[in-house]
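Morning F.,

Quick status update on the modeling queue. The single chain you submitted on Monday has been processed. Sequence for confirmation:
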Amino acid sequence: MLPVEVRKAGAAVLDAARAMGQDLLTLRTALVDRAGDRAEAVQPHLATLGGYFPKLEELVATWDWMLCDETQHPLPVARWVERHAGSGGGDDFLVCAAPISGGPRLRELLWNKVGAAVLTSATLRACGRFAMFLEEAGLQGYAALEPLALASPFDYGRRAVLHIPGVRADPRDAAAHGQEIVRRLPALLARQRGSLVLFASARQMREVQAALPDELKACVLMQGECSRRELLERHRARIDAGERSVLFGLASLAEGVDLPGEYCTHVICAKLPFSVPDNPLEETRREWIEAQGRSAFLERSVPEVGIRLAQATGRLLRTDDDHGTVTVLDPRLGRTHWGRMLLRGLPPFRIVIGDRPLDAPGLAEAA
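Structure tokens below.
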């Protein structure tokens, strides 16, 4: 509940913004009428006025949401104030308010008006289910809705392995986990010419790179050293020249990157890509879920990781002829019940658990 003084100040701002919007509309109409056949004479003034309309619309929308009665809306509203350094040396404050999901708005503006729509993506499902996407998109409850999951044309069972080594360090202990990654990488990367190592933390990425043996460090191209485009070009050039090349990257290298064939035969995920729910919208969403006796971890955190992990593993097979291994250096993927939820959302890899060589007989496999 907003404090009374905030509601009063906000109501005054909202009334003033709406009045200003009406005044600007009146002014624009008067300019057009006055110009007559000489529209070019008022064009600069109209352009200047045009810049104010979106700002006023945003201001009105913000305070509409800030002052709204949540009992009239299906989902809660997140409200917060951001403090920024002002140009004059003081502080500027940005008032923000928004519903935790755009689903109801999409229903109103789009789904209730279109005759038919086809939505496609490789990552509409999270942990093998459409539930989170349908909720966020406002598509739940439509009788004509037909979710369809099509099998990949790639032969994952024969051409790709998902390897979960017996990592001992807890991934939540960044220092110990990073040290174990450093110990394991030389052996994991020994037989591949082109590899991609994905990190959930820029700090851990830099620390691991700094601690690698010099021979392996010389093969590493790390995100941040140059633009993404240049990084990928240098990687491809090394592989084309018969050299070994290892890409170290973060989330932006886990999606939209195409490295077919020998450019990438090994994708290594240092850690399951959990994010910190540090933005007010996500914090409000999670508080709302927990207040209903549900689990925000299982309903939000795990499905979000599932989508990111599916994107990361999707870097491996890019053509019918590709082959290789995905290694996840996070033992929680194979040891926890929610880790098995994540596995259900991945392609049908041959899954290998443990530290025995991947070509050894009798490997532990999980469906």
